[in-house]
């Protein structure tokens, strides 16, 4: 008897295998090129990070700053107050959410990874949604707010997701480490599925997920054991893991009866 039958959980429409940030580390993360590479390895579900530009456009980026995954340190960017700032002089403080989309859209988000991806741009959530919907792919949107914008980011991302996937049979799964972001999503678009991300099991983790109306818990994979899986499933939650990059770890999670595995190793694990 499967764990699902034991707990009589609601139907779960998402595949077990999820490509982290598009294609893990094989392509520049959170870019359309990464999604295409992940799809080329047979993946049908992708995870990505979404935050807001200064003028409210949801776009894909993991870090709060631009330095690691764009060429911002070599550009002159116009912050929202339109004062020209040489980012090479303040690279460590180039907060992505302080810049309008017109500025962010001009950055190179691929050359940092390898020469083959030079010229790859930062995608908007609208663009990634169009790609996924057109190809029948599933999406896990991690709401990744600029610090201090947790609730409004959750609200805006949920609003866009509801609009973009209107009429589709399977909506995106919204997840976040920030309860305030999930609360914003809940209050704005309660019909969208949500998941609480955890990098540790802090006091009240399960109660928080229940309060936020979550359908899933997404843990650092080492946190799942028989006890935590049982607690989550008994509460009606699906159980997902990040970031799983070796076969013994993946097999342990499968044996525990967990529902989703987020991986960088799209070249190692076949999602079939």
What report would you give on this structure?
By secondary structure, the chain is an alpha/beta fold. 29% of the residues lie in helices and 18% in strands. It has 9 helices and 11 strands. The chain has helices spanning 3-7, 32-40, 101-104, 125-135, 150-164, 179-188, 205-211, 226-234, 247-255; strands at 17-20, 45-52, 58-60, 76-77, 85-86, 138-143, 173-176, 194-198, 216-220, 238-242, 260-263. It has an 8-stranded parallel beta barrel with strand order 1-2-6-7-8-9-10-11, surrounded by 6 helices. A hairpin with a 5-residue loop joins strand 2 and strand 3. Helix 4 (125-135) runs parallel beside helix 5 (150-164) and helix 5 (150-164) packs across helix 6 (179-188). The model is unreliable at 81-91 (pLDDT under 50).
Q: Which residue ranges are poorly predicted, with pLDDT under 50 across at least 5 consecutive positions? A: 81-91
Report the strand count. Answer: 11
Nearest-integer average pLDDT: 93
Principal-axes geometry comes out as globular
Sketch the major β-sheet: 8 strands, parallel, barrel
Class by SSE composition: alpha/beta
Terminal Cα separation, in Å? 22 Å
Give me the number of helical elements: 9
């Amino acid at each position: 008897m499967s764990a699902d039958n034991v707990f009589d959980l609601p139907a779960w429409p998402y595949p077990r295998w999820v490509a982290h940030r598009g294609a893990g580390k094989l392509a520049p993360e959170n870019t359309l090129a990464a999604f295409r590479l992940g799809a080329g390895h047979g993946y049908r579900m992708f995870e990505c990070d979404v935050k807001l530009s200064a003028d409210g456009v949801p776009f894909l980026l993991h870090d709060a700053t631009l330095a690691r995954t764009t060429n911002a340190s070599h550009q002159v960017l116009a912050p929202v107050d339109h004062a020209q700032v040489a980012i090479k002089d303040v690279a460590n403080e180039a907060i992505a959410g302080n810049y309008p989309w017109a500025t962010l859209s001009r950055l190179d988000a691929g050359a940092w990874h390898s020469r083959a991806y030079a010229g790859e741009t930062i995608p908007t959530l609208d663009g990634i949604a169009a790609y996924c919907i057109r190809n029948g792919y599933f999406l896990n949107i991690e709401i990744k707010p600029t610090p201090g914008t947790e609730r409004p980011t959750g609200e805006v991302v949920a609003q866009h997701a509801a609009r973009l996937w209107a009429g589709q049979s399977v909506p995106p799964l919204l997840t976040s480490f920030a309860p305030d972001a999930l609360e914003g999503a809940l209050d704005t678009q309660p019909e969208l599925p949500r998941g609480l991300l955890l990098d540790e099991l802090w006091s009240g983790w399960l109660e928080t997920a229940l309060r936020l109306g979550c359908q899933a818990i997404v843990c650092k994979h080492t946190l799942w054991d028989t006890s935590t899986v049982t607690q989550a499933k008994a509460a009606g939650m699906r159980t997902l893991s990040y970031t799983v990059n070796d076969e013994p770890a993946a097999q342990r999670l499968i044996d525990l009866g967990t529902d989703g595995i987020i991986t960088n190793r799209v070249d190692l694990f076949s999602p079939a």
